[in-house]
Amino acid sequence: MKKTITGIYGGSFNPIHNGHISLARRFLDAAGLDEVWFMVSPQNPLKRHDSLLDDDTRLRMVRAALEDMPGLTACDYEFRLPRPSYTWNTLQAMGCEYADREFVLLIGGDNWQHFDRWYRHDDILRNYRIVIYPRPGSSIDTSSLPENVSVLDTELIDISSTQVRGMIERGEDISHLVPPQTAEMIYREGLYKLRIKG
User: I need a labelling partner for 106 at 20 to 30 A (CA). Which of 11, 146, 150, 185 fits?
Assistant: First the structure.
């Protein structure tokens, strides 16, 4: 039986924005995926910082943003794993639980530049396909990539969660940068220390 090809797109999504979604759709179209799971990264208890919302709030934002988007799914799988969560352990656990799926790792060019520092990176390379997406400030030598690693042909997305959070704190309009459900939740719940002008 043919397996469902599932892309694993990890991040803090703090908050999720239109760039994340545009990139995931591009993965579906260009990387031969059946679906993309937005793997919401849990807080590292040793690296807490004020701007990172709690796990459940970020997950709710991602779920709301993807509600009517076929092929894109919010995933909290790492919430249930020992922390800190290592990608190798996540992929292995999911492989056991979801034998009907083939998992593909989706990572940014900045992460690829430091991939040799990842826990059991050699095992990941031996067992999984990896698709790299361009990130500002990172260049990738495609001629040196292993056979199972490819680069997504897509434009750079000029939106960042840091930018969105800064705009929220200054009371600026973010409606053009995030899904409507995300903006509504941020305003309704006063997330990211929202300061209303006027």
Answer: 185
Residue 145: C-alpha distances to residues 16, 32, 120, 123 (Å) = 29, 19, 18, 16
- Paired tokens of 152: 């997504």
pLDDT greater than 80 at residue 63: yes
Question: Residue 157 — pLDDT band, cuts 50, 70, 90?
Answer: confident
Contacts for 122 with CB less than 8 Å, ≥ 6 apart: none
Tokens read off for 2: 């043919």
Q: Which pLDDT band, with edges at 50, 70 and 90, does 195 fall under?
A: low
CB 27 within 8 A of CB 9: yes
3-class secondary structure, 71: coil
User: Residue 154 corresponds to which tokens in the numbers above?
Assistant: 């897509």
Going from the C-alpha of 13 to that of each of 5, 19, 80, 153, 187, the distances in angstroms are 22, 11, 18, 22, 17
- The per-residue pLDDT for 45 is 60
Give the predicted TM-score (pTM) of the model. Answer: 0.93
Give 84: exposed, middle or buried? Use CB within 10 Å, 0-12, 13-18, 19+: middle
Give the pLDDT band (50/70/90) at residue 198: very low
Residue type, 184: E
Distance of alpha carbon 42 from alpha carbon 102, whole angstroms: 23
pLDDT digits (tens, 9 = 90+) for 75-124: 999 999 998 889 999 999 999 999 999 999 999 999 999 999 999 999 99
